[in-house]
Amino acid sequence: MTTLTGPRGVARQGEPVDAVLDVRDLRMRYGSNDVLAGVTFTAGRGEVLALLGPNGAGKTTTIEILEGFRMRSAGQVSVLGTDPARGDEAWRARLGVVLQSWRDHAKWRVAELIEHIGTYYRDYREPWDTGELIAAVGLTEHARKRVGRLSGGQRRRLDVAIGIVGRPDLLFLDEPTVGFDPEARREFHDLVHRLSDDEDTTILLTTHDLDEAEKLSDRILILAGGSIIADGSPDQLSREMASEAEVKWTRDGQRFIHTTTEATKFVHDLFRQYGDEIADLEVRRGGLEDTYMALVRRFEEAR
């Protein structure tokens, strides 16, 4: 497994500072099929983790165990200092969950529904102010609209509002921006950064949008074959893979492209040979998508 030092006190070997998630050798078996075969990772306060992996890798099972909705076969799991298998209502009030799809309460008006759900948290913590939360997810002009009349993107924003109304210490996001237009996606990304930076919320998200994962996450976890095969920031994972870089430049009006695994050395030699004749230089290293595909492919070939 590729394991790299993460931000916010998460060390290569040892305990994270202010651990919110501490998962050790998590295993899940259905009959003779091992869906999870020793998953281990940690997360600190305010950290944003993206859990990536091919379909069937065990992402949903992992999340459901952490949320306390599914019993594990073996391993140690601590979520906010509690084993989720024994979490009580006070513990659950500290979690926020945004499912991939949720269809209910069509006759409620947006503001009324958020206000109502917020009342369930008041015995444990102070929920978001309804108007402030509606504004934060971009639904102010739809506050009086019935839920059943919202568009898909508006409904997704409501899903997010419902998931965070209790000001969770830990938020689970499953494909959070499905149905969002580009503007709504940018606004949601700003909200995620606000939650992690200002509210110190730890966020674990699953997404098939690798560009989104790269923009939002402090760390990437790649799950394949029931175990974590890589753990690090997008930049760390890319450097670990030492993927090829594409160098583009112009000289004497001609455009050139060269692929190399030693981009720095190549560019240095290029300027040493041609100096000021070089213009429009671009160096493009492999992004998260390239890294993700390479890591999964390497894992599958080694099986």
From TrEMBL:
InterPro entries hit by this protein: AAA+_ATPase, ABC_transporter-like_ATP-bd, ABC_transporter-like_CS, ABC_transporter_ATP-binding, P-loop_NTPase
Alphabetic keyword roster: Antibiotic resistance, ATP-binding, Nucleotide-binding, Transport
Highest taxon listed in the record's lineage: Bacteria
Residue intervals of the ABC transporter domain: 21-250
GO molecular function: ATP binding; ATP hydrolysis activity
Cellular compartments annotated: Cell membrane
GO biological processes: response to antibiotic
Keyword Nucleotide-binding recorded: yes
Membrane topology value: Peripheral membrane protein
Classification via SMART domains: AAA
GO cellular component term, pick one: plasma membrane
Pfam families cross-referenced by the UniProt entry: ABC_tran (PF00005)
Protein name in UniProt: Multidrug ABC transporter ATP-binding protein
Annotated organism of origin: Amycolatopsis taiwanensis
